[in-house]
Amino acid sequence: MKRLLFLAIAALVTLPSVAQDSFSESVDRLIDYHRGLVALENVTVFDGTGSEAKSDQTIIINGGTIQTVGASSEVNVPEGATRVDLKGHTVTPGLVGLHNHTFYTTSQRNIQLNYSAPMLYLASGVTTIRTTGSVAPYDEIELRAAIQDGEQAGPHMFITGPYLRGNEAWLRGPEDAARVTSYWAEEGVDWMKVYTQVTRAELAAVVEAAHEKGVQVTGHLCSISHTEAVELGIDSIEHNLMTNTDFVKDKEPDMCPTGPWRAEYENLDMNSEEVQNTFRIMIENGIGRTTTPAVYEMYVQGRPMADERSLAAMSPETREEYIASYKRFSVGGTPVKQWEQSRAYDLAFHRAGGLLAAGVDPTGFGGALPGYGDQRNYLLLLEGGFTPAEAVQIVSLNGAKILGIDDVTGSIEEGKRADLVVFEGDLSSDDDVITRARLVFKDGVGFNSGRMEEAIEGQIGVR
Ligand SMILES: [Zn+2]
Asked: What is the distance in A from the centroid of ligand 1 to the CA of 185?
């Protein structure tokens, strides 16, 4: 008896922590394929590694794992497999959203979307997120547990502690920074995020306290430049050219520059020594960056309004608030040249060998929705000059690399976790296919996108 009990405990301990086979009734109705043996046949595959698409492929999912991927003519579908003919569809890795809050803002509201955000992320094909600045870390810790326990549908979550803003804005110096970091590390966050106003001494203290507890640090910077942050030991960096003060002449240390420094970046040459030097320092230190074009686009003159389905997902009041702001910014917003420079900076960084990931950042005045905005990022990467294969890599495998989980997920390779998205149409010939996720496998469990989208309609901005 004792021995049996011991074996039972040993079996429990060796279970992968992500495995989840029992779901609440409300989650179960969102599932089309329970974990088992499934063959996705005759699909076009973008594997996430940056390789070109391959047509007429078959993927065998066994349990939570990708068992086989190869040409349909060569893959033997094992007996007993559930065969799904997906001719005319595309499969990519599950998207990895690296700046994906569970809160959402408009000009009038700042609200935790504990119900709709996780569901819309998953519906859109985002199978892993890092929250990258939390306004409610305990909510996120509970949400992560509810998803792991099968009580809620949502992505794998990496949780970030509260925004750490220094320079006597919120933190009162390095000791305070270390104390707050240690506290949240003990509570179970995976990352910490420093925000705009922070001193070098405070960032160094955050990094030291975080690393001591196995937690990593990222930042939306301003008072500290990107290369300074790398030298202080930061683990990743958020946003784009317009948050990097490396190229501001006579910048005062530890202070955000004043004056029209972003306008001066309109003349910055991406091939210049100073820009290439920043790239070199990031690359040599293995530090990646998360670009967030969907949230930046909102503020730029003359950009299109959020798409129909995004408007439908918002509550009526939220939609009114968004449209009012959109009308203001589409005329009086950021000059197009600054937007183009940011896009060029991302492309130059990637082409120089930099590790570029992406995330939606569903903040601003409300036009970039959880999940839908991650898909929008893909389209904006293409508009910025990336190839489809590069853009898929940026929204999947590169995020996994920054999180340190690329040996487990992020690409479609044999032995990796079965986190993948089935889109309707051929993504290699039609860019908009990225907006037509139909079936999302997470840990080998196939969720129906349409039913999840129905469940959140009218809820964005409310719950
Ligand atoms: Zn953010």
From this structure: 20
